[in-house]
Amino acid sequence: MKKSTEKSLFIVGSGPGDPELLTIKAYKAIQNAKVILYDNLINEKILNIADKNCIKRYVGKHPYGKYVPQEEINDLILYYCQNFDHVVRLKGGDPYLFGRGFEEWLTVRDQNINVTYIPGISSMQGAGLNSIPLTHRGVSEGVWALTGMKKDGSLSADLPLAVQSKSTVVIYMGMRKLDEIARTYVLYGKGDTPAAIIQHASLPQQKQVLCKAKDLVRASRENGLGHPAIIVIGEVVNLHHAVSIAMEQRHIV
């Protein structure tokens, strides 16, 4: 049994935003936290789960705006872990899926600090909340999860490979790259592939638009979509219509 005096860091995924989508383990970690270091995408209702005496330190980044440098976040993690026995690094979605959570684990690995990783529901699974399955037998053979913004600011070099596959393509942090994404699909003769942009998945202010891959920029502008959002491209997007029709027919009956 661990002693209560041992220093512990919990790298916690808070899911797409809805507090009810937290895992039980994540809920308990937040509830018992002495310190929470949280990102820009964290729902305030999730922070309210913590004790009133918990220190809550914002270390997030507004899209393409002001942000706390990763080096400073790493220093803060070390500082709080050395001075408190239950520190939570709270991140949106899943910390190990474009969340830099593993980088933060590496920061404390040699510091005699117990680290617990608690997975979160990835934001790409918000597609299912919008009647778009990421895979479906006979429609999609898999899922490509790509970043729209690499460290150097460029789009993932894997996109041309993904475009030519029979799998669903999900792009994180890609709203600034919609034009490049659309042009890539057109270049490979896949401009008419169904696509969806889903913003604030799982939250009351959620917005979405369905279009063709070649029309991503126009659809985004006409519907006022911005950050944070995921882009889902593939034939599975058309299944949204099948669900809508079925629901309408049920309502009529």
TrEMBL record:
What are the protein's UniProt keywords? Answer: Methyltransferase, Porphyrin biosynthesis, S-adenosyl-L-methionine, Transferase
Please give the Pfam families that the UniProt record associates with this protein: TP_methylase
Which pathway does it take part in? Porphyrin-containing compound metabolism; siroheme biosynthesis; precorrin-2 from uroporphyrinogen III: step 1/1
Q: Which GO terms describe its biological process?
A: methylation; siroheme biosynthetic process
Tell whether Hydrolase is among the UniProt keywords: no
EC top class, as a word: transferase
EC number(s) reported in the record: 2.1.1.107
- Could you tell me one molecular function GO term of this UniProt entry? uroporphyrin-III C-methyltransferase activity
Q: Which InterPro entries has this protein been placed in?
A: 4pyrrol_Mease (IPR000878), 4pyrrol_Methylase_sf (IPR035996), 4pyrrole_Mease_sub1 (IPR014777), 4pyrrole_Mease_sub2 (IPR014776), CobA/CysG_C (IPR006366), Siro_Cobalamin_biosynth (IPR050161), Uropor_MeTrfase_CS (IPR003043)
- Every copy of the Tetrapyrrole methylase domain together lies at 9-216
Residues in coiled coil: none
Q: Which domain of life is it from?
A: Bacteria
* Membership in a protein family: Belongs to the precorrin methyltransferase family.
Protein name as annotated: uroporphyrinogen-III C-methyltransferase
Q: Which organism is it from?
A: Sphingobacterium puteale
Q: Which gene encodes it?
A: cobA
